[in-house]
């Protein structure tokens, strides 16, 4: 066991995989000599060289497309989007080439795309997005979103060893804020949900940065027993774990940081309304970012991102139901 | 591999040096098979046996036949929608191609993907996506892997004149140029993108761009299958020797509509007539006749093969609807592309 | 009144706008001389010339990006994607440049993107997609999806006259199959839902091609009174109309043709589970395409697309609840 | 418009012909303002008054100053992240720029968008998006509209060396070339894209690509504001005369880190030192001194203006959170971009 930040856990998983498997190749803008915009690959070129920690041209479609080509001839590329927002520039290669390949052609595309995402630091409309729902709606892509250092490492190992394209959502706001015990060496975290805190009166379902918000918001709600379910994986979505929590708690609040409409939370709510309906004792409440670009100025950004207060309020109201 | 050590010595010499009589017959056979299969498939389409739409490469057979013939078993190809001969040369059987067109279980994609959207992964080919020219980046990435691993292998892809207007064309050309990758880009310039003539697509012939990306660009008569072969052979040998990418512009003409529904009345008749005189199949037949080859016998054998293949495919079942949801994800180990057939005599033991 | 096909209604709206407003400009691949892949603009060049019915290079990012530029200097561009699937190649310009412009800069982008979408004719994985949910999740884009000839015309007029970017989803399968009475001249259909058939026992909520499927599936369900609500507009989403129908019928089946996860139907279900919960008498049932690329071969395609039988079954079951 | 009828006569003659003494002072003023504002803003950033990250264009001031100075009121600009002087020339007040950096209500985007992501629509400018170089297509579309309407106007945008690797660079260049549009593309080559040197971005200098797209490409000393002006003036006049696009590569150097957090230790010191000797502000000062201009007076006036502007901005409020959800959609009439200021004496009555 070692104590690591969320960011160190990501670096550690990448380093272990580069050491274990010569097929693993990192591709991205400024990840080599500079060590990455967030220093996730700091010092990697010294150990692994510029071939395996490749500074690519400024071309996201190129990064994803070339990674697909490398993957189908036996490499294990791990691509970094400098910010998850920029996947929009490689969206076609990701959803149409990588995502649909195995179903169409029986050809596996073992590929990971690391997507530093999320807001909370005045990144503005183009450095704060949470694009996971776009991937969830595109068949053939797996999507994971760790909330702890331990899961950041285990999910990344599992993603790199998965024979499919995996979108790895790493939340920028957690990089240095989240610390925790992480097991030594390589371990794979399954793409399933995790009960972050068991409870019986109400369950808050979240993933990524919103798990911490949910835990803080419900740490002390007039003694109510609040469960927090950390989805960890969005594709596959752990439907059993979700329906389980609903069955036990019968009241649900779903939190995600992405824009509300058609977000991951919408899918979770729809699932519960369909298959968990009988267990419900109250409306399926959602807390998410309203449908606006993420504004730059702190007072505006704070007004749109789901925070501890909004989540606490939502739980209070629902408990009173 | 024999070919690799042998090649440098061969550098520079003309096609006759490289093509044995059996090779030149193979090239004709590939083109005849392509034309015959597509003609038959078009009939099946008219009879409602081929769902969706139907695309062919009538008049462009030399481009895919000549280029694919220069590729080694260990090379990798991304084949486009007018390049049927390339599949045949890599070893895909005509029966499976008919089954593919008809969406039957025995088709290369078992009915999951349509008509020309296929590639046999066991034969080193990746099935194209519709978005053009996305496969240029996939080919570039394959070449990147070959170079990183120090392998003497090459990737090749085809793409059309229209698709040169898209961003992915640029990202692939630039990436391949700056990393000096072993990839061959074959620009299949058939004068039109659907109904759009090249003068609405670009102001200057795209072959001129190669130099601005730092590599060689050559123009070839895309209706001469042996010239195609030689241009790609030279480009491949440059690639595996570490000389970087090559852009080969094959000048040809789309002699049919964009797809079965298209009467192409937007194309001046003279233009079609002029190109008809340069038919690639007739040209190769003429060549071979002058060498004393019994071309009619080749034709007859091909016709027979096609009949048998069509019958076999028609007898096969449609896919089982119960299968429709399986295979979105790979469950087992990821399996990389396999080696293809490489009939050229220059490849010792490179397939049939 | 004139009887028109869905396709003729679209052509007629475009023709009227080109005649009424010299700022209107059509851009797309093969829309000029050829009249468009589906002949929507057949004969237009003859009347309006190649400048206003522009055959563009094969470049979707270019089409959307140039349209944004033209729009902010006073034009009213209407872009055609040859197939909606290809918007993936212009996705970045659409969501990041067009969609966020007004919120960020106060600059309006009056722009329409026509997206021939949907399956049912062996188009395969790249000619059958329904990308509307991707737009719904991207703030700043309006999204409409007509199901009748009348609405095809009225919604297109309203879209072209809207000062914002509007994604106009035209379903290829309806082009020549759907016919109807269409009012003469220019009329704007509001971006609101429409009760396609009133009912009281159960409401089927749908849009685009699924409205016809819903009507057929429920035309005779052992005398049950089935309402069909045609959303018509996905952004803005007519939440009042949806909650209204739910209040009246208390049983809901939501149908969309897009892949299930995070689809428009997920958002509608989430809305109902949150704000319509008290009115529900039974689970919020969804019928959609499972999360697979749309296969080419007829038996496979029919197995994945939501058809009359699946919708009827879903309604039967829910009525029995 | 005077400028248009006047211009043809001027064609070909050197910058001295076009720049009156007051113009040359204006150019210095614009660069001094840009440098002073960015230096002050950097301090405010260090004091925590500027949220997010901070980018500047230290050492590149001549590129935006010289280019924007050649644009007419009715022209339209997409301004990038190292081009502050262009905003100043179009007429944006320093106080609003400070407010913009600090995310205050008085900023050009009223706190919605960050630091350099702004453009005053009333002054004919579109605020950039982060995705590079997306604005090249927006500028191309503006030019397309000008041409369709037969207007003698021009669009201009800047973009960096790194962004030339992206597909949108190609789609814009190709589109502008094939439609021969009145657009000026200014490639601001500051040798690096974040930490990535140009030799990992391309094999051949991108200015070479212009010819392959069918238009003129020129290289200019991006640290000489008058040379910049002249190159863009000539390109603009070619554009409005129907001569099509121009690609202007401005050679310069990013003298600071990519953003405030970047110590740029990946840049060889000699490279920085060498470029320091070519500082664009000092060069213009030297020029003006030799003409007898009291440069210190200009400096003093600029410093004063900046102090006042910073004070004004600091006194302004942050935006009201209650506003955060408004304005996603335009509710009223769509209003097109307005005309900007155009201080060049060559534009009769073109602003201050
Ligand atoms: C990105 C993209 N946009 C639009 C289309 C629709 N489309 C299919 S083929 C075609 C024309 C392609 O022309 P070209 O690249 O010259 O290839 P050719 O068919 O002539 O061989 C178009 C526009 C597409 N396939 N991909
Ligand atoms: C499409 C895209 N990918 C990645 C980024 C992240 N990024 C911001 S600036 C930058 C470097 C840009 O270099 P260049 O184009 O040379 O402009 P410069 O900053 O040097 O002026 C990168 C990679 C981006 N802004 N856009
Ligand atoms: Mg073509
Ligand atoms: Mg740069």
Overview of the molecule:
The complex is a heterotetramer, with two copies of chain A (321 residues) and two copies of chain B (352 residues). Chain A has helices at residues 6-20, 44-52, 60-72, 91-98, 101-105, 132-136, 149-161, 209-217, 239-249, 264-275, 298-304, 308-320, and strands at 2-5, 24-28, 53-55, 76-80, 111-117, 142-144, 165-171, 179-182, 194-197, 202-206, 226-230, 233-235, 252-259, 284-289. Chain A is of the alpha/beta class. Chain A has a seven-stranded mixed beta sheet, sandwiched between helices. In chain A, strands 9-11-10-13-14 form a five-stranded mixed beta sheet, sandwiched between helices. In chain A, strands 1-8 form a two-stranded antiparallel ribbon. In chain A, helix 1 (6-20) packs parallel to helix 7 and helix 9 (239-249) crosses helix 10. Chain B is of the alpha/beta class and 352 residues long. Chain B is 43% helix and 10% strand. Chain B contains 13 helices and eight strands. Chain B has helices spanning 2-10, 15-18, 21-46, 61-69, 84-90, 94-101, 135-148, 167-178, 209-213, 225-240, 269-276, 280-290, 295-315; strands at residues 76-79, 125-127, 155-160, 183-189, 192-193, 196-197, 216-221, 246-251. In chain B, the strands form two sheets. Chain B has a six-stranded parallel beta sheet with strand order 2-1-3-4-8-7, sandwiched between helices. In chain B, strands 5-6 form a two-stranded antiparallel sheet. Chain B is globular. Mean pLDDT of chain B is 94; it is low at 1-15. At the A-C interface, helix 4, helix 6, helix 10 and strand 14 of A face helix 4, helix 6, helix 10 and strand 14 of C. Bound molecules: thiamine diphosphate (2 copies) and magnesium ion (2 copies). One thiamine diphosphate (TPP) sits between chains D (82, 130-132, 160-163, 166, 188, 190, 192-194, 254) and A (29, 58, 60, 82, 86, 89).
Largest sheet report of chain A: 7 strands, mixed
- Count of helical regions of chain A: 12
The largest chain-to-chain contact, stated as pair and per-chain residue counts, equals: A-C, 49 and 49 residues
Uncertain runs of chain B with pLDDT below 50, 5 residues or more? 1-15
Number of strands of chain A: 14
The geometry of chain A reads as: globular
Strand order of the largest sheet of chain A: 3-2-4-5-7-6-12
Percentage of residues in DSSP E strands of chain A: 15-25%
| SSE arrangement of chain B, N to C | HHHHEHHEHEHEEEHEHEHHH
